[in-house]
Amino acid sequence: MFEPVLYWLDNVGNIITLTFETLLWLFRPPFRIGQFLAAMEFMGVQSIFIVGLTGTFSGMVLTLQTSYALRAFSAEGRVGGLVAVSLLRELAPVFSAIMVTARAGSSMAAELGNMRVTEQIDAITTMGVSPVQYLLSPRLLASVTMLPLLCILYSALGMAGSYLVGIVLLEGDVGVFLQSIRDTAVPKDLFMGLIKAGVFGFILSSISCRHGYYASGGARGVGLATTRAVVESCVTLLIANYILTQLLLDTEM
User: Fold this and answer.
1) Which pLDDT does position 1 carry in this prediction?
2) How far apart are the C-alpha atoms of 97 and 147, rounded to whole Å?
3) Residues 6+ apart with CB under 8 A from 107
4) Cβ-based neighbours of 97, under 8 Å, separated by 6 or more
């Protein structure tokens, strides 16, 4: 009866403890610059295509749906601004984080889990190197650094897709489209998205690293750890998105 509750408490405790230790190692030498750059390349550069593709088609379909919805009110000229705000505040940070979780978060959990079950992490400890500093801290810092950049990419390509549908396919007015963006989207919309993206990067990295680092039970255990990392990260991201949205909107009032 209490087993799910105990598992959840143990999981949360492990994530908090491991993440706190990871943060402490960020400020203690030796600093693993090579590991950090490799993690940035893996989480950021290698995610450009999937994030860009998702952003482009998200902007396209959002513009299509919004145009048909506003047509009933003869307000098609507001499409550009509405799409821009939606991308900057919500779609870009959330979908970027989910795509990175699916691609990089799962890979982190699987890689760390495989290192755990094959005793590579124990070997690193035996050599006098902290596995948390060597394996986890660079990944956490890279995730927090790259997610906001991917969020900007998502927003930019989303607006490009929006322009393609709104102007080229639906034959809207370019001046009205651009003016709507200038009138509606403001810098605080971008800042809201970047703050969310940084927090989401922290969350997905913490959860993915926890499940991979404590994986056990051979190949099956690695598979379970990877699945749990992706599912828990996505659910936590959506919950955190609501909380952050509420807090950030309250600060505007």
Assistant:
1) 62
2) 7
3) 42
4) 147, 197, 200, 201, 203, 204, 237
Alpha carbons 176 and 159: distance in angstroms, whole number: 15
Give per-10-residue mean pLDDT for the chain (253 aa). Answer: 76 86 88 92 95 96 91 83 94 96 94 93 91 94 96 96 92 89 92 96 94 90 94 95 92 67
Q: CA-CA distance, 157 to 243, in Å (whole number)?
A: 27
Residues 6+ apart with CB under 8 A from 27: none
Quote the strand ranges of the chain, DSSP E: none
> Which sign, positive or negative, has the C-alpha torsion 132, 13, 20, 91?
positive
Which of 77, 61, 86, 56 is closest to 161 using CA atoms?
56
Q: Both ends of the chain: CA-CA distance in Å?
A: 44
Phi/psi for 27 (5° steps) reads: -105, 10
The DSSP symbol for 47 reads: G
Q: 196 Cβ partners below 8 Å, 6+ apart?
A: 93, 94, 151, 241, 244, 245, 248
**Cis, bond preceding 93 (omega within 30 deg of 0):** no
Q: What is the pLDDT of residue 46?
A: 95
pLDDT of residue 217: 86
Task: Provide the token pair at 117.
Answer: 């079950």
Which pair of tokens denotes residue 55?
């952003």
Under 8 Å CB-to-CB from 117, ≥6 apart: which residues? 215, 216, 217, 218, 219, 221, 222
The residue among 94, 202, 192 whose CA lies nearest residue 146 is 202
